[in-house]
Design brief:
This is PhzF family phenazine biosynthesis isomerase. GO terms for molecular function: isomerase activity. The chain is an alpha+beta fold and 440 residues long. The protein has an 18-stranded mixed β-sheet that branches. Strands 19, 20, 21, 24, 25 and 26 form a six-stranded mixed β-sheet that branches. Strands 22-23 form a two-stranded antiparallel ribbon. A hairpin with a 2-residue loop joins strand 7 and strand 8. 46% of the residues are buried. Helix 1 packs across helix 7 and helix 8 runs parallel beside helix 9. The protein folds into three domains: 113 residues, Diaminopimelate Epimerase, Chain A, domain 1 (Roll); 154 residues, Diaminopimelate Epimerase, Chain A, domain 1, CATH 3.10.310; 148 residues, 60s Ribosomal Protein L30, Chain: A (2-Layer Sandwich), CATH 3.30.1330.
Length: 440
């Protein structure tokens, strides 16, 4: 198995709310990405599992930068939160002074600047239209798992860069209690001419504040934690409905609360008489530790998280040492099965071993908050279900060691034991356990 070379990337959390440790929407940012092909950009995005941005040299003298945006399934014309994240990173690195900057995107020119300590990007005035077909409104309600009578006022299609379908609900409790039929979202959005359903509810007693959720049409994941383009469209929709005034004001859109990743998106609307100037979208950002990003890029997001399947704990903690239970490798919820009988099975075993290590690292990250708290992996133990003549145990487990070296490049390699066995739980090809040294 050939390990994937990790490109230079930063994982920025954008539109973080009160708790930067949990809030915001991840945006992997690849700087100086001119050497990457479109296929590589798409593959790196697929591996990260998040909307990603690639920063390139501009093609025209009118622009200072060019950005390309991808979701796991395809390229996009524009991504608001990824643009904010890339500019925030460039400013933090001293490569942009915060003054107005023109960015070339597939959706046209986007300008960015720092205002009151945060990055803001431009979006045009939205085109807002009412969805008048009652059959479509009824289908939206069915897709969201509610009665159509719970939809307050007209449903709107609004777009600054991409069309979002705005669906008002009475309160945040109804919004966060939605039971969405995700299998119907894509075909419904096709008929609506929309790229996502964006239900929302006005916040009580908080002025220009609103809670929202985004269910994208075909991005490769069911829900977004923060969506700058959708928030901009929503702000214009609120003005169209008279829910915010015509003065220059800031609308705060809270998103991701139902996902456990609360976000806060600031949309600055101009004075109504100056509406053709468009709006500004921005918010707070922070950078995630590189270990967390490396794991996401190197290992497919479909790799399972480790969890006990019997009467035991995933980790037993003794001081700063965390001893894991054994975990068999899985993909898409299915065990990668054995046995390994000969050289042709080495790659199969490597997939199983890497998936098991990734599952344990994700479980550790969930408990620790970040893999940056792991000082080193002390031991790596592998158990392979093999035939009696199999002799490539070391090659199989070398792939697991290589993953650990790439996630923790500054740490020494762990000690390792590998044995062949007749059987493993659920018929797995490889079971792995780790001992971690954890920082206080």
């Amino acid at each position: 198995m050939t390990t994937t070379h990790l490109p230079h990337a930063h994982n920025i959390r954008v539109f973080v709310g009160a708790d930067p440790g949990t809030g915001g929407n991840p945006a992997p940012v690849w700087l100086d990405a001119d050497a990457l092909s479109t296929a590589q950009m798409q593959e790196y995005t697929r591996r990260s599992g998040h909307e990603s941005v690639f920063v390139l040299k501009p093609e025209t003298p009118a622009h200072a930068l060019r950005m390309r945006y991808f979701v796991p399934n395809h390229e996009m014309e524009m991504c608001g939160h990824a643009t904010v994240g890339a500019l925030w990173l460039l400013h933090r690195r001293g490569e942009w002074d915060g003054s107005p900057i023109a960015i070339q995107t597939l959706s046209g020119t986007v300008t960015g600047q720092r205002v009151d300590g945060t990055v803001r990007i431009s979006q045009p005035r939205a085109v807002v239209e009412e969805v008048t077909q009652q059959a479509l409104v009824d289908e939206i309600a069915q897709c969201l798992g509610i009665d159509a009578a719970r939809i307050v006022g007209p449903v709107l299609n609004a777009a600054t860069s991409r069309v979002k379908t705005l669906v008002r609900l009475a309160d945040a409790q109804q919004l966060h209690g939605l039971r969405v039929d995700f299998a119907r979202v894509e075909s419904l959005c096709e008929r609506l001419g929309s790229t996502g359903l964006y239900p929302y509810a006005m916040s009580q007693g908080e002025g220009c504040a609103v809670s929202a959720r985004q269910f994208p049409k075909s991005s490769g994941y069911p829900e977004d934690a923060a969506t700058g383009i959708a928030a901009a469209a929503l702000a214009w929709g609120l003005r169209r409905l008279g829910l915010v005034g015509g003065d220059a004001l800031t609308v705060t859109v809270r998103q991701g609360e139902a996902m456990g990743s609360p976000s806060a998106i600031q949309v600055g609307l101009p004075l109504e008489a100056m509406a053709q100037e468009g709006c500004r979208v921005g918010g707070e950002c922070c950078e995630e530790p590189p270990e967390d990003l490396r794991l996401e890029v190197l290992c497919p997001p479909e790799a399972a998280r480790a969890g006990p399947s019997g009467t035991y704990a995933t980790f037993s903690k003794a001081g700063n040492l965390w001893h894991s239970s054994g975990v068999v490798g899985r993909e898409n919820g299915e065990v990668i099965a054995g046995p390994l009988r000969g050289p042709d099975d080495v790659a199969h075993g490597q997939r199983a071993a890497v998936a098991a290590v990734a599952a344990l690292l994700r479980a550790a990250r969930e408990e620790l908050g970040s893999l940056s708290r792991i000082a080193r992996v002390v031991t790596l133990n592998g158990y392979l279900r093999t035939g009696g003549d199999f002799a490539e145990h070391a090659k199989v487990m070398d792939a697991a060691s290589a993953l650990l070296r790439q996630v923790f490049p500054e740490a020494p390699l762990p000690a390792r034991t590998t044995v062949g066995v007749v059987s493993l739980p659920r018929g797995g090809a490889a079971e792995v356990s780790l001992t971690l040294e954890v920082r206080d």
